[in-house]
């Protein structure tokens, strides 16, 4: 008979590798316990228990008994009983998912306090104020978190109590004030819920555990997971931990520390500390904290012990650690550690620092950074001028240059953002309910809180610009304005600029300069410059290692020599997509295409083609020169036909007016007839691509001749052109065979007339489901495939990108139908499975088949890993995404090698 599943683990039983089961917090509490660090005793309820609870609506049958056994053991170890009247044991109940979700799920402190046990806590601590402060915190937190009472009701009551006392500081409320406040809070609970605040400590604990389970599916947790692409089926663990108290007086306190600066990566002493406070006070930003260095003056013994523990943890985890601690009457306790969230700049610097310290190798360093972080580093930075008016200065919590209209609540931020406005969310401090506004905003500005406040931690995780603790700002959210130290009033809708790298806040729009990382890729950065504390050097080292490790080549989507040259500077190894229709969109060429479409006999058609040929040849000459020695994949004409014809309504009006004047224009009449004849309800699924080449004789032949003649001319001039011809929108091998025959005939004619041997590969785009399904047949006539994943996504899903993104994508994302737009990251299950099938079928027919992708997925970090997995040879993307693709291709190779070795 199989043994019963275990749902509860003591902190002495786990380790840091059990995050799937114990969550990140529980696994790391166990790891610190194993290391002999001062961790308050406790136990963890597993994520598996949470999954059962969420699936069935009730906890596993054995869970209550398991919790009781672990609680008994904890009570014996501590010599106290949960909530007993004379010597109460108090515990915290805290969430802890596998991936850090700061502030997104629920926590309740001081479980076990009641009308009976609060007097025991007074006797136990000898501090009446502390006991009643702890009780009011429990009622407030429990009421909001577990019972669903509006938190503003408690805040308003607290503000009224402070106002009656003539203070704005919680610490000025004495024991009598807090005792009265507890009664007010209990009254709020009973009025709002219809039941009294529970006095049974075990009932408090069980309800709190269930609330944490439920919070996994709370709105803010779901929103955060969508933003961070965290799977929805992981569940959260629950940690029940003996309470230690930072609010026992001036010899107590609580803090958050980092082993390195999470904003810059600089080594040193970083963190925030609050005397006489509980942990939630620090991260909530409701009181401005002291820098961690001040703790040395207040309590050198605890400070020195903390510094030694921080060094031990960083060496053990081999990474930046984020630590929560409490000091209870001079005794240091460790409440949490985790690998800390950091800015993009800090991620690159820290990765290289750890290599230089011998803690990790370059492979591991590369896996510590992402293409998304590299993209953040390529954003512009501010270039303040004499006209730039600085109005405040706070803490540089998360870098970036953000400009937008001031808004004061989450709802307005989302509403204005959806209307196309760029906004800056301004709050006294943020809380988890502000998450959707933080996502919508360009940046976040708060008047309270430090680098470990909710705003700072969440903004860093999302890569959002953030300035915290701008104390001179008086934020009035009800009046929807803030006032600066010199009396300037900034109203909602006024534009401000916030600099997350310096903490400076400016009125109005400040001009921006290119990022030094972009200047590095462009080759315009001063050689050897120690820009931004070695950031560029760190990027260079990791990019060089990525290039040495990656198997995937990276090409560019570029339609002209200028874009091709830029792409080459960014590290492109050729052009994977040159869209020739973009070469025809000028007014002069558009007219020639009109003539070609209107031609109703061979003579007129040949005249139009002969006019276009030298223009096309000139385009290709410039492009082949810019990309000399590298492959250039030229896609033959693939426009929806309406792009080259006048608007049917405008043309009809023009013709009607001319007829009314009795001065008809014969050319307009012919053009209108052609437009009516060629008009399509859905041009994206109409006469385009290979279909156009087959319907208009000589069109593709003209383009191939221009490519071949330009290549021959470059060769004769000593160049090394390497063109490839790509036939678009093929759905059947017969289409490809017909066009291929024409292409081969033209190439042979050019080779004979110029005396130049031309090695030009002929291939096709795979952008229709039928092409993917019949890839084995199509490979018989193609020397290469390039997956056009933009069109393939449209045709697989059956929707038009231009229409659906504005109409229902937002609702689909909010409802969780999409975790992310399938146009942003490849849909592995649908579109991806077709790509995988086409790769396997194509190579089965032609083992040397060259395979690439040229949709914008080619520059998406997650998609690059998929393309590596399925065996493509290269990805192609816009020039500015090339560095991202290079970095991710290197990471994909390392990840793949790690999987193979396991």
UniProtKB/TrEMBL annotation:
Q: Which residues are noted in the entry as Mg(2+)-binding?
A: 767, 791
Positions of the catalytic residues: 454 (tele-phosphohistidine intermediate), 854 (proton donor)
Pfam families per UniProt: PEP-utilizers, PEP-utilizers_C, PPDK_N
Record-listed substrate binding positions: 579, 635, 767, 788-791
Checking InterPro entries in the record gives:
ATP_grasp_subdomain_1, PEP-util_enz_mobile_dom, PEP_util_AS, PEP_util_C, Phosphohistidine_dom_sf, PPDK_AMP/ATP-bd, Pyruvate_phosphate_dikinase, Pyrv/PenolPyrv_kinase-like_dom
Query: Does the keyword field hold Transferase?
Result: yes
State the SUPFAM superfamilies in the record: Glutathione synthetase ATP-binding domain-like, Phosphoenolpyruvate/pyruvate domain, Phosphohistidine domain
What chemistry does it catalyse, as a reaction equation? Answer: pyruvate + phosphate + ATP = phosphoenolpyruvate + AMP + diphosphate + H(+)
Cite the PEP-utilising enzyme mobile domain residue spans from the record. 421-503
EC assignment: the record states 2.7.9.1
PEP-utilising enzyme C-terminal domain: from which residue to which, for each copy? Answer: 541-890
- Give the GO molecular function terms: ATP binding; kinase activity; metal ion binding; pyruvate, phosphate dikinase activity
Keyword terms = ATP-binding, Kinase, Magnesium, Metal-binding, Nucleotide-binding, Pyruvate, Transferase
Which residue range or ranges hold the Pyruvate phosphate dikinase AMP/ATP-binding domain?
62-288, 295-346
- Highest taxon in the source lineage: Bacteria
Q: Which cofactor does it need?
A: Mg(2+)
Similarity comment: family membership: Belongs to the PEP-utilizing enzyme family.
Q: What is this protein called?
A: Pyruvate, phosphate dikinase
Q: Which organism is it from?
A: Streptomyces kaniharaensis
From which lineage does this chain's organism come?
A: Bacteria, Bacillati, Actinomycetota, Actinomycetes, Kitasatosporales
